Amino acid sequence: MKATKYIFLLIFSFFTSITLAQNGYFLSKSIQLHFKEITHTDTLINFEIYQNSIFIDQKFGNAHNTQNYDFDAANETYIFSYGRIGIGSGNEKNHMKCPELIVKLSFEKEVKRRDGRIAQIIYYRYIPILLSVTQKTEDRIIKVANIDLNPLLKNHSKMISIEHKNDYTLLSHQELAQPFIMTELVKIF
Prior knowledge:
By secondary structure, the chain is mainly β. The chain has helices at residues 2-20, 150-154; strands spanning 23-35, 43-52, 63-72, 77-88, 101-112, 118-130, 141-147, 158-164, 167-172, 185-187. It has a domain at 37-64 and 93-139 and 146-187.
């Protein structure tokens, strides 16, 4: 009888530990982007970075998403940090879907009006940056240096795709599996 009681307590404690104990997880990505100097005939008056909508990755239903942004002035690097904390098995790979970024460049240009006077006009160029690398690698820090926006100032059908760590490619809208749509732009810088 005494042995049965110990066996029962052992089995009971084993099953309660399985049902009550849950592991947590913390996934994070830090994307560090550095841009080359923009050389253009028109005057660059503003450089802004937006995020396409709010960062919510619904991979796990019971997760808390975090985001943080910083600019390292010494290295002229923009740092985007995304994280997810939740309850799970603890075996989740560090793959996350991070939101697309959009660089907004504002230029000022002098144009001659019909009456001969010179007028100043301001125009904008939006350049999407796709962060598909965050779903392909478990690396927490992704650095891409010397992103050249100059070729994209004339070619409006191209965007930047970061698919590999330390590298980017220019991609046309036709090459995307799903069309790129700017929904709700959230200003970061």
